[in-house]
Specification:
Length: 348
């Protein structure tokens, strides 16, 4: 832990970063921690946008918590994951414990205080035992969530990653790109717009085929994490056991298991995907879920990824149309590279 700072210095450090709701956050933090932070806090350590690690000296030595600022709807999803949805599946200990929440005065933002799981993410340590344990948990999540009675509630408050996610995002991307035109639009951006539209219109025309594959081979809807990057996974190994915890459930939703599986497999080199898929297949098959053929899987994986690409296009187009954001051409050029570099997730 670095040099201790007072509560006033902590307030100043967060306010200097123009964080809203600092007073409300510190009131709740003081209530939750009691005398634990009396010996002093550390400077807040930024981990990513709107997320900090805060260390303090407690009665049992140094401790730390994670402070995360979210929009109220996103915060509510994360709370229900921790307190309702995962416990309903018997998986309540597989996410970070939510200690407290603090609402900014105007209600536009909500701070959540979580236990700190440390720094050993699967991104940092992705040896085979840790990857295997993570694969097992993902399979267990999908098996227990398949057809669960809470799925309508998850869909209502979270996201629907079925074929509507693909159709809506491709349609939004086309409408946004169509409006990026005119004399004030730089030539580079007009060229990018035209090339991306040539990508999007065939995807829209191909929607019925993709919907048919999803309907016939996608399996039952299940609970999805929605953002299974290795940075969102923590694995603790013991001699004969492993504990896996997933964080950042901002994109939690409902849909085919292939949506999560696609994200996770693509975080690994092509040569490693086979054994991960085989292990996942064994786990879900043992519980009565049948995975599609590899050709069908590739169609479903591609559908999920193209939907994500289109989603990024639509947000970039909106940023240009409403704000003239200078980063938009860079973002669209990057998305074009994603299309150019795309290869089937599984080698056929």
């Amino acid at each position: 832990m670095g040099p201790a700072v007072s509560i006033d210095q902590l307030r100043s450090a967060l306010e200097e970063r123009e964080e809203p709701g600092v007073a409300e956050l510190l009131d709740v933090l003081g209530t939750v921690m009691g005398d634990a932070g009396a010996a002093g806090w550390s400077e807040p350590i930024p981990l990513k946008r709107r997320v900090y690690r805060l260390r303090f000296n407690g009665g049992h030595g140094a401790r730390s918590v994670i402070l995360k600022r979210s929009e109220p709807a996103v915060a509510q999803r994360n709370r229900w994951v921790a307190e309702r949805w995962l416990p309903a599946l018997g998986l309540g200990d597989h996410c970070a414990t939510l200690l407290a929440s603090a609402s900014e005065r105007e209600g536009q933002w909500l701070w959540q205080i979580y236990e700190d799981l440390g720094e050993d993410t699967l991104e940092r340590q992705h040896d085979q035992p840790r990857v295997a344990a993570t694969t097992d948990l993902i399979a267990e999540l999908h098996v227990r969530g398949a057809g669960h009675a809470l799925l309508p509630e998850v869909r209502s408050y979270g996201r629907d990653f079925g074929i509507s996610f693909f159709t809506a995002n491709v349609g939004d991307a086309i409408r946004g790109l169509d409006r990026i035109d005119g004399e004030r639009t730089p030539q580079e951006l007009r060229s990018l717009r035209a090339r991306l539209l040539r990508r999007m219109y065939p995807l829209l025309a191909d929607m019925p085929r993709r919907a048919e594959v999803l309907n016939e081979a996608g399996g039952p809807d299940t609970l999805l994490h929605g953002d299974l990057w290795r940075d969102n996974v923590f694995v603790t190994l013991w001699s004969e056991a492993a504990r896996v915890q997933l964080i950042d459930w901002d994109h939690v939703g409902v849909g085919p298991l292939t949506y999560d599986l696609s994200t996770f497999l693509l975080r690994f080199p092509s040569a490693e995907r086979r054994w991960i898929l085989d292990r996942y297949r064994e786990k879900v098959s043992g519980a009565g879920l049948r995975l599609p053929t590899e050709r069908e899987l590739n169609v479903l994986f591609e559908t999920a990824e193209y939907a994500r690409f289109a989603n990024r296009v639509s947000w970039a187009a909106m940023a240009w149309l409403h704000e003239g954001a200078e980063w938009v051409p860079i973002e669209l050029a990057e998305i074009e590279r994603w299309f150019d570099d795309w290869r089937p997730t599984l080698a056929e």
